[in-house]
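New to this. Look over this protein:
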Amino acid sequence: MHPSSAKIMDILETHGLHSQVRTLTDSTRTAAEAAAALGCEVGAIASSLVFLADGEPILVLTSGSHRVDTDLLARQIGAAAITRADAARVREATGQPIGGVAPLGHPSPVTTYIDVELKKHGELWAAAGTPHSVFEISYDDLRSLTGATEVTVEEN
């Protein structure tokens, strides 16, 4: 198991969660790829996206079926501007590569927000630190474990 994935597994076990990190031969770099590899709905993929809110990294855990409306998000969190982080900033903030960013296991805490749309799915799948690894988790456990604040990332 990759060291990043092992770290995620250790965190899950430390918190009493019985989820297992799965390493897949198929890529899970995008929500669509992950859903196809897992045989689940794209909406059940909890994508971990790094943005910069007024220049500071934030992590947004969003449903794979959503695109983050940065203006809507900025209004909810009180930021003047939100932009997508480049690969270097993503790795700096999370220690993980784009396409494999886990919602936890970062070198230091990253302010985290969670898309309320994820509540609609019983079992969620999130990246486990590499573009080929994932783990399952419930919405409540994901929110609790990450300390995420609920937000709406896309208007209906």
The chain is about 30% helix and 25% strand. The longest strand covers residues 45-53.
